[in-house]
Design goal:
about 5% strand, mainly alpha, homodimer, two-stranded antiparallel sheet, DNA-binding, about 160 residues
DNA sequence: TATTGTTATACTCTATAACTATA
DNA sequence: TATAGTTATAGAGTATAACAATA
């Protein structure tokens, strides 16, 4: 650690390679937001891979669990995706028996989506992963700053 | 706005569609980090599109400007990408005359990357966009919380 | 006419592995 | 043997436009 710091002072990393200067990027919220999100996503990805699911499936399964009978369009809208982007995702979840797709009687254009028992089981395991992930994040952020950090993230989502 | 709130209380949005419940997602840092990053990225995308560049090119051009003569591998490493991912990016920037690629005399395997005059000009315009973007973010975050928010984002980048 | 979901298609970004030319 | 960069290839995720069925 002492060696690493000494090396940095001379513009080198511990590995002996020239240090890269980030210039104004280092202080920009936009850039650091992206880097932080990538790191957190990657970390969650590792955890969810242990149970054979991609992180993207987690939000979809949760939204279906929280909104039984939701349509594909409403699901896409909630996640900020086009309905055509949902088709292959739902195809995959239905094919693997995690989601049931049933035509609505009221409006026969729409499907009503629900989790199967297997889907609920997978979601429970993914949720356990997510909780571990959140605990890791909490340790990094600090319990006192968590609420404030979350509030700021929510405000940024409304940027325009 | 009042109508929207009243509608929400009844579980409907202003548009009359059923509101979607986000359940535990609403309070998870990981999910909100992703949503915030997507929103901010989209907003910057709009600004940079006005000058005909994608957001991804901005970080690349900045890193080259800050580290004249940097190699493609070092560039990829700094951005957390594989060297093979850099090839098409650099091909594009060189083809459009923004970056100059010259073989190093010391090590004839590596290229030394530098901005051309056109590249410096494009970067200056992108930087102006980024400054506007940062000002928008600052207004949302609040000047008093900015430093703390940035510090937290940097800590999250080291999650593992 | 408008909407739900599918299809065809394409684009962006990314990675792995095999290759070349150098070291 | 190891490294810098390229190529071939593939995969995930997303979007637009046109379409069929239904409203």
């Amino acid at each position: 650690m002492a060696r690493k710091k000494a090396a940095r002072r001379k513009g080198k990393t511990a590995g002996g390679k020239a240090a890269v200067r980030f210039g104004p990027l280092a202080d920009w919220v936009g850039f650091n937001l992206r880097m932080a999100q990538e790191s957190a996503f990657e970390a969650f990805s590792h955890l969810s891979r242990e149970i054979g699911e991609s992180p993207g499936r987690f939000a979809t399964l949760t939204l279906i669990a929280e909104n039984p009978g939701i349509s594909q369009s409403a699901l896409g809208h909630a996640a900020g995706r086009d309905k055509s982007s949902m088709t292959p995702v739902l195809d995959d979840l239905v094919r693997r028996g995690l989601v049931a797709r049933a035509r609505s009687d009221e409006d026969r254009r729409t499907y009503r989506l629900n989790l199967t028992a297997a889907g609920a089981n997978t979601l429970a395991r993914l949720t356990a992963c997510a909780r571990r992930h959140e605990q890791n994040l909490d340790r990094i952020i600090g319990p006192r700053d968590r609420a404030r950090f979350l509030r700021t993230l929510k405000r940024v989502q409304a940027i325009s």
